[in-house]
Design brief:
10 strands, 19% strand, 9 helices, alpha/beta, 4-stranded parallel beta sheet, 255 residues
């Protein structure tokens, strides 16, 4: 992973913007949409965007800003960037950011356009409702692991809150009242036959995404293991323990 994606609240915060022309105007519109206060180079700020077209002035401005400890985005100069600005799919409060590390803004744009067509307009409404019912979720599933498994199951393809199925706020209420539970706690095993994560079955990919602990044959490819939750515990072992950890544990073997 070449960068750590972050969502930064810029409302009311100063951001330095340098440059003129189309690129600078586009960055200005984006910053204004996020509520940032756009300031000049001499102002105090934590972030800066340099949209100067000429090389020498651009490099000089980047150097001055970095010398002050300011994180810089340099338009069309990915090697100079401390952070990049992704393509954005906005279903407030849901934000999907697509970045390529500066390799291809065109590819990020194409992916955004595909996702825009896929994601229903009601997605934001459903997300806002999920935030409003946190107390009800804790009451229904007091244990955090049980709660996470139930939520994972609800968001599955075809589930009551399938994000691509145009769920509404009413669907959230009905789901909580139904009392449906999530993935079964315990040990689940499966065998992979290649190092390509695209060869995983749908069931295997779902188990990886749900697992609290991933135990694996040392021969299993890191590319396979990277399909697991980022915060899942991982451990290489020849065989799974007799008493697996609490929660959803999977043991991945290599054929």
């Amino acid at each position: 992973m070449h960068s750590l994606p972050l969502f930064v609240r810029l409302n009311g915060r100063p951001v330095i913007l340098l440059g003129n022309g189309e690129a600078a105007a586009a960055k200005r519109r984006l910053l204004e949409r996020a509520g940032a206060v756009i300031v000049g180079e001499d102002a105090t700020a934590s972030l800066a965007i340099v949209a100067i077209e000429e090389d020498a002035p651009a490099h000089a401005a980047i150097a001055r800003l970095k010398a002050r400890g300011i994180l810089v985005n340099a338009v069309d100069r990915p090697a100079e960037c401390d952070f990049t600005l992704p393509a954005i799919v906005d279903r407030d409060p849901v934000l999907i950011a697509i970045g390529t590390g500066g390799a291809s803004a065109g590819l990020a744009k194409a992916l955004r356009q595909r996702l825009e067509a896929m994601l229903p307009a009601t997605l934001g409404e459903m997300a806002a409702k999920m935030g409003a019912v946190r107390a009800a979720l804790r009451a229904r599933w007091p244990d955090a692991r049980d709660r996470r498994r139930a939520i994972d199951a609800a968001f599955e393809a075809g589930g009551p809150l399938d994000p691509l199925g145009a769920p509404t706020a009413d669907a959230v209420t009905r789901w909580i009242e139904s009392g449906a539970d999530g993935a079964t706690e315990g040990l689940h095993r499966f065998v992979v036959t290649s190092d390509d994560p695209d060869d995983l079955t749908l069931a295997q990919a779902r188990l990886l995404s749900r697992a609290d602990t991933v135990l694996h044959d040392p021969r299993v490819s890191p590319a396979i293991l990277d399909r697991a939750r980022a915060d899942a515990a991982r451990m290489a072992c020849a065989t799974p323990p007799d008493a697996p950890p609490r929660g959803v544990t999977i043991f991945v073997e290599r054929a």
